[in-house]
Design a protein that fits this description.
- The chain is an all-beta fold.
- The chain is about 0% helix and about 55% strand.
- The protein is built from no helices and 13 strands.
Length: about 150
Amino acid sequence: MDLVSSINSLVCLTSKTDGLVSILWNPATKHCVNIPTPNLKFLPNQDGSSIGFCFDSLRNDYKIVNVLWFHEDMEPRPRVELYSLSADCWREIEIEGVVPFEFLSSSGDTIVKGEQNWSAYFHGHPFVNVVWFDVGKEVFREGRPKRAQPGC
């Protein structure tokens, strides 16, 4: 199994050997939760996939983001499915418009304040940027949100 990431001492592990198998594990209590298989499956025209682990502090819920990439008309098109630990189910999230990026790794790179971050390649640009999953609004965003400076 591969380590996706860890939040609040809860570890997310996955294996893509036979579909996507995910486990949430608490090493302190030795408790494991087997996550149901996602509804989205690998297809012959699929170009890649990535998985992330998030904590939704508004809903006090751990979530897994499953992203499958396809190319249609020379543009990257992701299909995204979100697992909620509290609901114990997967549901597909609509991504509006053209997504001008693709993730560089099969799992997220780092967690910042409970939100998964990926390094991403932006089409038409010779650089790598950060894309993060806003778990509260269930959308992908480029870069990091601007924070107000003290005294401003």
